[in-house]
Amino acid sequence: MKQRNPNFENLEPSYLFPQIRAKAEAFAKHNPEQKLLNFGIGDVSLPLVPVIVEALEKASKEMGTEEGFHGYGPEMGYPELNEKISEVFYHKKISSEEIFVSDGAKCDIARLINLFGHKPTIGVQNPCYPAIADSVRILSGAQKLQLIPCDPTTGIPLDLENLTCDILIIVNPNNPTGHLLSRKTLESIVQIAREKKILLIYDGAYREFISQPGYPRSIFDIEGSLDCAIEIGSLSKSAGFTGLRLGWVAMSRHLHYKKETTPVLDDYKRLIQTTFNGASYLSQKAALAALSPEGHTQTKRQIHQYLQRTELLRQGLETFGLMTFGGKQSPFIWARLAGKTLSSWDLFHVFLENLGWITTPGSGFGSAGEGFVRFSGFAKPKQIQEALDQMKTNHHIRRFL
Amino acid sequence: MKQRNPNFENLEPSYLFPQIRAKAEAFAKHNPEQKLLNFGIGDVSLPLVPVIVEALEKASKEMGTEEGFHGYGPEMGYPELNEKISEVFYHKKISSEEIFVSDGAKCDIARLINLFGHKPTIGVQNPCYPAIADSVRILSGAQKLQLIPCDPTTGIPLDLENLTCDILIIVNPNNPTGHLLSRKTLESIVQIAREKKILLIYDGAYREFISQPGYPRSIFDIEGSLDCAIEIGSLSKSAGFTGLRLGWVAMSRHLHYKKETTPVLDDYKRLIQTTFNGASYLSQKAALAALSPEGHTQTKRQIHQYLQRTELLRQGLETFGLMTFGGKQSPFIWARLAGKTLSSWDLFHVFLENLGWITTPGSGFGSAGEGFVRFSGFAKPKQIQEALDQMKTNHHIRRFL
Q1: Which of the ends of chain A has fewer CB neighbours closer than 10 A, N or C?
Q2: Strand runs (DSSP E) across A243-306, as ranges?
Q3: Are B167 and B232 within 8 A, CB to CB?
Q4: Where are the alpha helices (DSSP H) in A63-182?
Q5: What's the whole-model pTM score?
Q6: CA distances (Å), B34 to each of A92, A375, B27, B30, B45, in order?
Q7: Under an 8 A CB cutoff, do A109 and B53 touch?
Q8: Which of B204, B397, B225, B217 is nearest to B319 (CA)?
Q9: ipTM of predicted complex
Q10: How far is C-alpha B31 from the geometric centre of its chain's CA atoms?
Q11: B70, B203, B274, B378: which to substitute to probe chain A, counting the most A Cβ within 10 Å?
């Protein structure tokens, strides 16, 4: 092979989460007596709900029979599931033919970047989930990435009027800030996108954590979004599918290229048929169960638990003088010291070395995250309570707060 | 959005298999009395073997318990599975850290093209499985695709010495020709690749269909391949995983860029961590079962059945005067008329309209496939026998042969 792909040359040496894992493992090795508590990676912790497990068992049995075996499915997903997603999440405003079932949001971001090729500039919130910016760096090149300056406490772009990117990726509820955008902010974003012909990619993977009434759960709840936005959805966080892998991309047939009659959707369909072979049949059956009325009741209960845990942790952190943001319509708490200034990695080490807590350093989400750490609220209430008690009695940690 | 990605502009209007499906559906609609028989798409038809079904049921149950729940797994696959693949397919010549478990070979082709960026020229056999050439056209642009002239009956490149591509993708056993490369041919390919610094991507998705002794099953069985080749593997065809989705990429740490010390593997790891979130936990558990000694016995029996079916069909087609190629170490028969000349699509229509047979037109695999159709041997023996009997008594069809 003659040449290395230059896009890899200027990447930070390691992707954030493996880096954190390595540091935590090194600490554990040298401090075998210290119990570790993971507030780091945003992974669900409650088991799959009964209705999903039943669906998986049934589909597994079925796959062992001649009549029930399923090989390749439609690359876009089984129509029954697409229909269900259209109904449950979009009230049919997005039809089943406008939904592309996938193996998850992270992969969808990469496929969407591939869809538009390496010419458009792509705006990403600063701070933002690092896989998004790195996907642009790897697939399109760092020169195509625009890190959009945002309010570091919310992730809202500071200067919408002066955006110059061709594509803007917005995550709502936000990761890492845990902030939920209001209808008014979303309306401004859609308006600017229309005026400037910016394509919006709206990542709504945490939508089921929105409990406050009046807040839009989908970009397609905003008028004028159908011909300027693409939405990414996922069952990872709302139904515990991080191990099963199931997400989707939703885009309207009305989304067109400028001066072109081709709907963007036609190109995406072609890309999906060529480079993807559908989500696992079992995951699709599990998704149907998750979206059934019974599945909805069972999974909603879990979301409620996660929100309660997050609130317990948030209040505890506030008590100790940390400033917290988000964490109310999201499982993520974004926190920093009130007075003293420590870098995100220093703060990460303070928590790790004094309490055995694994957090995520805010600077790993972009320069605007410097000074923050992200906590996720997926740990068990008992563990959270123990952690907070431990913090109360730990003198080393108190001197930083 | 300002511009359409130009890579979509010069694609053939539709990906081959959906096109065939549409034609078959239209025919069925107008001829409801005609039974259709699918010799088209290469999908397995036997149910999952018992040991795999048991593993799936067990893992499903496990996911419903607190201790057994699995969320995000390692992006490269659970170490136990990587270890097993290293052992079963590579006799540890490729270590578990050199294997990237994935959701299938089609997606891996796309990820590997992404790995090398849009600068290298990519050589693809003509004829070849269409998703490969189209993936290059979509992800790198048609100008980066080199269709390598091959012997149309085998798919062996005609002029190895004069290859000018940076990357060469080789499928063995071949799809569509069903041909199996000899050790000698593979040795020449590796030698040329080394001399010309061409990176080989070796797609061995059909390796378990190789029954003839003395034929290499992996590119890594060829001396000198470790630092010039990447292999793609899959359980789709060998264990019925087309619906479960599980494949892998294997590459040695010794594969380097010219004048660079970075192993290619480090960049791929980064790409995988950034743009992929692991194969389904259930599929990985099923894969472990498939690769257990019991799983091997059970799945081997299925491969044997498919090979028998293919042979039944091949002999039948020969009896009627079709010239057949492949189909002995592969589930694919590559066939054309002996004397008369019909285009691939004409031949496709002759079979569809007179017999209700769905085949795959050879020209869909590239210009070198013109005049051929591909038959896959996954149909039931009874159906194959019926189809052949029907051919015997059908005067319309006989006049073409």
Answers
A1: C
A2: 247-251
A3: no
A4: 79-90, 105-116, 130-139
A5: 0.96
A6: 36, 62, 9, 9, 21
A7: no
A8: B397
A9: 0.96
A10: 32
A11: B274
